[in-house]
């Protein structure tokens, strides 16, 4: 968990007779075990939250399959999970804005607030960031967690706990749209209709993008994108030789210049397509953790002054995400395709479902 903690044996009761806090531990490749997890002491500005909804992210699956995600490597057992919402059980002595019983969505990253990046407001880039389920920091797929109160956002009455947990992936799309200055005059291309591509589509629409085209290799995900409001959907191949022909299809579907392209897949081909399809003077945003090295047509894009923008996590997005959901501007419920409880068997099945692709978009735990 963000505040630390440790494993201490199996299930049962602790020495005070209270129910032990259980969590899903990643203990090896393709091996998750529900084990006891000792919470850290509650600090004056912390809250203790009973988890009620936790989603599975692609990074969780990467850690399960390979014990690493990009440069982050799991070297010892780690509690998994970071997309979460729950109910406040206890508050620290200095916490004024939250009380037990409040339903909250948790922003999973704790920055230092002392470095230059934090001071200039770009705390998502803090080199000392402690982020749920990013080694060596433990995550939130547990009965309870301890977290700073200022990173727990009260849910509006008409927003469910599952929707609260969906604020985390939605935040990636919202941050991407802010970085790209999406508005009512911005035509948008989204490469990839996985969970992040779909939340980027939803965010771009909420920011006012008048026309959005999305491409993917999978028919089912494209049909979901169409349901969610994409103006055009294009099925593409995985063959890099098809880029030029597919760019023609994309331009035809858009019927206008593409101002911003979001690459939400991170492959040579998707980035090459985005760079080639975007109009002169436009932007290409690489959202999330793509391949660490790519071979792309950068010089032709530079000659057209296409800006390449990086997107890493998010900052100050939870209030806007909650407002989008509360007001009905964004409906994240359609993205939740599978639900599981919190038993050893169900945890294993949930990760198998998420990793297997197919019709799964967002897999959610109900604790």
From TrEMBL:
PROSITE patterns: ADH_ZINC (PS00059). SMART domains: PKS_ER. InterPro entries: ADH-like_C (IPR013149), ADH-like_N (IPR013154), ADH_Zn_CS (IPR002328), ER (IPR020843), GroES-like_sf (IPR011032), NAD(P)-bd_dom_sf (IPR036291), SDH-like (IPR045306). GO terms for molecular function: oxidoreductase activity, acting on the CH-OH group of donors, NAD or NADP as acceptor; zinc ion binding. Residues 28-365 form the Enoyl reductase (ER) domain. Keywords: Metal-binding, NAD, Oxidoreductase, Zinc. CDD domains: sorbitol_DH. Its cofactor is Zn(2+). It comes from the Eukaryota. The keyword DNA damage does not apply. The keyword tRNA-binding does not apply. Belongs to the zinc-containing alcohol dehydrogenase family. This is Enoyl reductase (ER) domain-containing protein. It comes from Carpinus fangiana.
């Amino acid at each position: 968990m963000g505040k630390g903690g440790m494993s201490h044996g199996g299930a049962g009761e602790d020495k005070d007779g209270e129910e032990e806090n259980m969590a899903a531990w990643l203990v090896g490749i393709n091996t998750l075990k529900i084990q006891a997890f000792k919470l850290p002491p509650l600090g004056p500005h912390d809250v203790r939250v009973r988890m009620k909804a936790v989603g599975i992210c692609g990074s969780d699956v990467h850690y399960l399959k390979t014990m690493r995600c990009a440069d982050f490597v799991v070297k010892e057992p780690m509690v998994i999970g970071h997309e979460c919402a729950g109910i406040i059980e206890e508050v620290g002595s200095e916490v004024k804005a939250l009380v037990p019983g409040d339903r909250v969505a948790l922003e999973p990253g704790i920055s230092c607030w002392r470095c230059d990046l934090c001071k200039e407001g770009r705390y998502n880039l803090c080199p000392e960031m402690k982020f749920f389920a990013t080694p060596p920091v433990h995550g939130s797929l547990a009965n309870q967690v301890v977290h700073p109160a200022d990173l727990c956002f009260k849910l509006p009455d008409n927003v469910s706990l599952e929707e609260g947990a969906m604020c985390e992936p939605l935040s990636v799309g919202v941050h991407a749209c802010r970085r790209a200055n999406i508005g009512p005059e911005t035509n948008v291309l989204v490469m990839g209709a996985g969970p992040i591509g779909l939340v980027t589509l939803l965010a771009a629409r909420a920011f006012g993008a008048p026309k959005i085209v999305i491409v993917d290799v999978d028919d089912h995900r494209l049909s979901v994108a169409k349901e969610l409001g994409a103006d055009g959907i294009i099925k593409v191949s995985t063959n890099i030789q098809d880029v030029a022909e597919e760019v023609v299809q994309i331009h035809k579907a858009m019927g206008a210049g593409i101002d911003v392209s979001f690459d939400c897949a991170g492959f040579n081909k998707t980035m090459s397509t985005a760079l080639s399809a975007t109009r002169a003077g436009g932007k290409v945003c690489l959202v999330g953790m793509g391949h660490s090295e790519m071979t792309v047509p950068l010089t032709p894009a530079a000659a057209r002054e296409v800006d390449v923008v990086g997107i890493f996590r998010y900052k100050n997005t939870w209030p806007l995400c909650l407002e989008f959901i509360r007001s009905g501007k964004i409906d994240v419920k359609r993205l939740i395709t599978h639900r599981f409880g919190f038993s050893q068997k169900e945890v294993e099945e949930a990760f198998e479902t998420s990793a297997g692709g197919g019709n799964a978009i967002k897999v959610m735990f109900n604790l």
